[in-house]
Each structure stands twice: as structure tokens, then as C-alpha cells.
Write a structure and sequence with these properties.
Length: 259
């Protein structure tokens, strides 16, 4: 069976649409709703599904847990081994793959795919890594299927992806504000992205502050989204210097934020 992971980011979206346009078969197109999506993302996903239905007669399979798993792992499930055994994790870490990626995206996809087709050797998983990303060594090792990278095969990078989505009229409007999309509370987003969140998405920004406050109140290990810098402190910086320059860059292997 053939499965595709679609985050709503531009790379995975372009991959799915172009793959179908070329006559490729996809049995399931998976979208993981983490409970922390931008409302604008969910609206976009609805519109994208309408496009897929109209042009390819394909629907999305939406994976969404009944419970808020981020809150469960942050504030309810204690660490079970190691030097921090018994403590609460708090917010996801900035570096590396943490429980949020594992429990909100990777595990739901894996469980669904294995429930439909348990033989990993019969499964192909389409992943939207660009030509440059794969060329630089970014690949996925999966125990439930064989990863395939259509954008790499087509030699598509950011420019080709952007132009394709614009030509099709299905560009995600969140890219008007962000260089990447993902959960609004993603700790892997840059300071510039957090400023954009603060400026244009006040409800989501307040939710981030609430999560930090709860982590601090419960004495969690990690209480801020950025190392040693809370959203309250960031907000004070933003208010003092609303035109501040941002020079942060992303490191691909450390970023969950979806392009």
C-alpha cells in the first residue's frame, strides 16, 4: 500500500498533488491534527481536501486523538527512568526530536499504517523532503514501510514547490506570515516566527504563555519554549523593539516545523 504524510506545509502538499497529477496511486493521505494547529491551517486543509476530491477523487485521512496528548505528556505523565525519574517533562525541547513529534505525529501515523498493512515490506511511505534536503543526507528510517521522496526524484526545491502551488492556486496563506508552518506552539520555531505569532496571532500567543505558566507552576523540567527565555520576556523585548532584526537560521535536522 502507498501512504503519504501531508502536514499542510508546502513541500508535502506539492508532493501529494503533483504525485497524483502524474497518475500515481496513493491509498491514504494522512494529516495529523495535533490539537495545536492554527485555525487557518484547518481551514486550508478543508480547502485542500475539496481540491483533491474535485481533481483526483481523494479524501484525507485525519488522525486526531480524543485527548490533548501534548498536555498529557507535559503535565501528567511523569518520567519513568533516569536521573529525572518521577518528574514532569514540561514543554518540548528546542533541540532534537522530543515527545511532541513522537506522540502527536510519528506514532499516530505509524499505528494507522500498521493497522491497515502490517507488512512493512509492502508499504511505501511518501515523504516531502526536497532535493537539497535528501542530497544533504536527510532521510527517514521507518519500521513500517519504505520511504520514498518524490520531490527528490523530481529535483524540486523551495522555488519549484512555491511556483507549483501558486500556479495551482492552492498556496497555504500562513506563508504570508511564516517561513514555515506547524503547531503554533512549536519550540523549534525561530525568534522571528515567535514575533510573528505575537503580532498576528494573539490567541495562540496567549495559549503559549499559559502553557509556560502551567509548566512553571507544576515545577516541570522544561518551563519555556526557548532556552532560558519565556514568552513573557520575549513579549517585553518585542514591545521595546517592534522592528527588531532577526538573524536566526534553521538547521534542517533539528527542525520539526513543517515547510
Amino acid at each position: 500500500m502507498i501512504f503519504a504524510n501531508l502536514s499542510g506545509g508546502r513541500d508535502s502538499t506539492a508532493m501529494v498533488v503533483r504525485y497524483l497529477e502524474l497518475g500515481g496511486k496513493i491509498d491514504y493521505i494522512l494529516f495529523c491534527d495535533t490539537h495545536y494547529e492554527f485555525p487557518q491551517m484547518l481551514t486550508y486543509i478543508d480547502k485542500l481536501e475539496s481540491y483533491l476530491l474535485k481533481h483526483f477523487n481523494k479524501k484525507l485521512t485525519r488522525l486526531r486523538s480524543e485527548e490533548d496528548l501534548l498536555s498529557k505528556w507535559a503535565f501528567e505523565y511523569p518520567i519513568t527512568r533516569g536521573e529525572h525519574k518521577g518528574k514532569l517533562r514540561g514543554l518540548p525541547k528546542t533541540l532534537g526530536m522530543d515527545y511532541c513529534t513522537r506522540e502527536l505525529k510519528a506514532k499516530p501515523s505509524r499505528d494507522f499504517i500498521k493497522s491497515k498493512s502490517p507488512n512493512a515490506f509492502k508499504n511505501t511511505i511518501l515523504i516531502g523532503y526536497t532535493y537539497n534536503e535528501v542530497s544533504n543526507g536527510r532521510t527517514s528510517s521507518l519500521d513500517y514501510g519504505v520511504a520514498k521522496y518524490p520531490l527528490y526524484q523530481w529535483q524540486w526545491n523551495e522555488r519549484e514547490v512555491e511556483n507549483y502551488l501558486k500556479d495551482k492556486g492552492i498556496a497555504n496563506p500562513l506563508y504570508q506570515h511564516f517561513e514555515r508552518t506547524g503547531c503554533f506552539c512549536c519550540p523549534k520555531q525561530s525568534k522571528k516566527s515567535l514575533y510573528t505569532l505575537y503580532r498576528f496571532y494573539p490567541k495562540e500567543w496567549e495559549k503559549c504563555k499559559e502553557l509556560e505558566a502551567k509548566a512553571k507552576e507544576l515545577g516541570c523540567l522544561n518551563t519555556t519554549f526557548k532556552p532560558n527565555l519565556s514568552c513573557v520576556e520575549l513579549e517585553a523585548q518585542f514591545k521595546r523593539n517592534p522592528t527588531m532584526d532577526f538573524i536566526e537560521t534553521y538547521t534542517e535536522d533539528m527542525v520539526c516545523f513543517c515547510r
